[in-house]
């Protein structure tokens, strides 16, 4: 985990990520740098970290302090240790729908929550009582054929990649953003609504179609300092078939996906090490 500066929200996110990593059996290494570090020095540090023999995946906590270029930092880390799935190579493999590469964690978490909503729906239809969580993982991948998914937000971190993942599941996808005229009208046509805006409680009941699945990615401080999402939960919850809370919901699922990506990089590294060992043996080295 690489943290630059001491943004309190980032500190609390990495604390959670590290405690989940430890609870699930990962060794974690904490690298902290002052907000005043130069781009050049930080890039040098990241080059050392990415070469560390005991490290499979690196998480660079975003946002980095003003004056630092996060795109260049992610590029320096390289795709091999990109547990976050945010390196341009992985944004490309996500766009192309190629399997076997890390995908951005928050969009993966959104898809897992959509799968959970569909799984719960199927449980309700087939059983007298509803189980809270499935006994096996991963969940069946929901096929979204014929459904309209609306994503509010077009960031490289969430909006764009989650739109690609929804498209991959055959949803018809609309992407709304700050220049969209009447976003509430378009949003109210969604069977699946993903809000990744960063505006506290922007999405009210009139933005949501009755029976929709609503995934709230936003993490914002409301006027009283309370943590709130992009969705006005109390108004919207009675209208929809499933909704994620803030805090909870997408945040913890993003952390789970970070663990999944890191574990898959570890497995790939082990497989590569074994295959190069076998090649050396064959050559009698
Ligand atoms: P961002 O600022 O990069 O992007 C916000 C997007 O919202 C932009 O594309 C913008 O065009 C759009 N937008 C802004 N105002 C709008 C409006 N009035 N109507 C329609 N669209 C509008 O933010 P981001 O990095 O994508 O993050 C979005 C939110 O998700 C933030 O609250 C962030 O904290 C949260 N987030 C949560 C997690 C998590 O793990 N839960 C992860 C990443 C981001």
Describe this structure in words.
- By secondary structure, the chain is of the alpha/beta class.
- 42% of the residues lie in helices and 11% in strands.
- The chain is built from 9 helices and 9 strands.
- Strands 4-3-5-6-9 form a 5-stranded parallel sheet. Strands 1-2 form a two-stranded parallel ribbon. A two-stranded antiparallel sheet has the order 7-8.
- Strand 7 (220-221) and strand 8 form a beta hairpin.
- 34% of the residues are buried.
- The mean pLDDT is 94.
Radius of gyration: 20 Å
The share of residues in helices is 40-55%
Structural class determined from secondary elements: alpha/beta
What is the number of strand segments?
A: 9
Shape: globular
H/E topology pattern: EHEHHHHEHEHEEEEHEH
Arrangement of strands in the largest sheet: 4-3-5-6-9
Number of helices: 9
Average pLDDT figure: 94
Strand content: 5-15%
Uncertain parts: none
CA-CA gap between termini: 36 Å
Summarize the structure in short.
With 285 residues, this protein is of the alpha/beta class. The chain has helices spanning 8-23, 39-51, 70-77, 88-96, 105-126, 159-168, 183-187, 233-236, 250-282, and strands spanning 2-4, 31-33, 148-152, 172-176, 192-195, 213-216, 220-221, 227-228, 242-243. The chain starts with a strand and ends with a helix.
Structure keywords:
single chain; 285 residues; alpha/beta; 5-stranded parallel beta sheet; two-stranded parallel ribbon; globular; binds nicotinamide-adenine-dinucleotide
């Amino acid at each position: 985990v690489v943290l630059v500066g001491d943004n309190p929200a980032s500190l609390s996110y990495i604390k959670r990520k590290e405690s989940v990593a430890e609870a699930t059996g990962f060794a974690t290494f904490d690298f902290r740098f002052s907000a005043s570090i130069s781009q050049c020095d930080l890039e040098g540090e990241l080059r050392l970290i990415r070469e560390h023999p005991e490290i499979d995946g690196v998480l660079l906590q975003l946002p980095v302090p003003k004056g630092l270029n996060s795109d260049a930092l992610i590029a320096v880390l390289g795709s091999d240790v990109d547990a976050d799935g945010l390196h341009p190579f992985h944004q490309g493999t996500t766009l192309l729908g190629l399997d076997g590469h890390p995908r951005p964690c928050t969009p993966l978490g959104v898809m897992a929550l959509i799968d959970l909503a569909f799984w719960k729906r199927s449980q309700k239809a087939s059983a007298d009582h509803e189980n809270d969580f499935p006994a096996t993982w991963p969940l069946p991948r929901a096929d979204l054929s014929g459904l309209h998914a609306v994503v509010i937000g077009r960031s490289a971190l969430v909006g764009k990649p989650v739109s690609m993942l929804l498209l991959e599941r055959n949803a018809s996808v609309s992407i709304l953003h700050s220049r969209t005229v009447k976003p509430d009208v378009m949003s109210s046509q969604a069977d699946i609504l993903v809000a990744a805006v960063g505006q506290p409680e922007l999405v009210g009941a009139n933005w949501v179609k009755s029976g929709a699945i609503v995934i709230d990615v936003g993490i914002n401080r409301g006027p009283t300092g309370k943590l709130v999402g992009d969705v006005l939960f109390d108004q919207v919850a009675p209208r929809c078939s499933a909704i994620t809370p803030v805090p909870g919901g997408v945040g913890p699922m993003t952390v789970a996906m970070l663990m999944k990506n890191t574990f898959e990089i570890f497995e790939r590294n082990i497989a590569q090490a074994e295959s190069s060992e076998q090649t050396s043996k064959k050559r009698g080295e």
